[in-house]
Amino acid sequence: MREAERVHGAEEPILVPDGVSLGYCRVSSSDQSLEGQRRLLFEAGCYEVYADVGKSGATMKRPELEACLRALQPGNTLVVWKLDRLGRSVRGLVELLHQLQERDVQFRSLTEGIDTTTTQGMMMFTIVASVAEMERNLIVERTRAGLAATSGRGGRPPRLQEHDIEEARRLRYSEKWKLDSIAAKLKVSRSTIVRAVRSDGDSGVGYGGSKKPSHPQELPGGQSAQKTAGRGAGQSR
């Protein structure tokens, strides 16, 4: 039996026998009851249960949790009713579980079925760790993308480079290629080609300026606006 460390602000820790389980439970407000969690933890074989009352999962200062963690010794097991009783951040949970492993302390969560003393429990722990790793990577990627967009020095590169835009305009105006054919050659969408060839102001009225188009405006299906207008005028007569 080892004597646990004393934590300032918490009750004096108990003497913890070798190989026992210690439970931890928490409620966010003082008007909530701990009895349900306590009962389940004692039924799971906990030697003692630590409890924080009126402490949010996002709050780092939880004296009873700190006392419980310091009382745990190699060979002991920390048991909780549910993972979110320890905290709301997956990353924080995984870091805590890694710390317990380094101290040779096992972990059980009754609701999620995580039990690091079993092969299945270790598999669940690995899954949670993988999710946390993915969460960290996504946060890093979003942060970098946000900084790049704010600074104006990066972000997602354009679909067409400058030489591609020049080639698209040459094919359109000099070679008289259809928009769909240019899009297929450069392996982009038709709308991307439309934006590329119009970005210099050579557009119809209402897009990029008031100049009239120097060529028939192509409609879906390869038809031109002039031909369509001519047929419409003939039919109106």
Write the layout of secondary structure elements.
Elements: E1 2-3, E2 15-16, E3 21-27, H1 35-43, E4 46-53, H2 63-71, E5 77-80, H3 90-102, E6 106-109, E7 114-115, H4 119-151, H5 162-174, H6 179-186, H7 190-198, H8 225-236
Parallel strand pairs: 3-4, 3-5, 5-6
Antiparallel strand pairs: 1-2, 6-7
Helix pairs in contact: 3-4, 5-6, 6-7
The proportion of strand residues reads 5-15%
- Quick one: CATH class of the largest domain? Alpha Beta
* Major sheet description: 5 strands, mixed
State the order of secondary-structure elements, H for helix, E for strand: EEEHEHEHEEHHHHH
Number of domains: 2
Fold and architecture overview:
The chain is of the alpha/beta class. It has 2 domains: 2-135, Resolvase, N-terminal catalytic domain (Rossmann fold); 162-221, no CATH class. It has helices at 35-43, 63-71, 90-102, 119-151, 162-174, 179-186, 190-198, 225-236, and strands at residues 2-3, 15-16, 21-27, 46-53, 77-80, 106-109, 114-115. A 5-stranded mixed β-sheet has the order 4-3-5-6-7, with helices on both faces. A two-stranded antiparallel sheet has the order 1-2. Helix 1 (35-43) links the parallel strand 3 (21-27) and strand 4 (46-53). Helix 5 packs antiparallel against helix 6. The radius of gyration is 33 Å and the shape is elongated. The protein starts with a strand and ends with a helix.
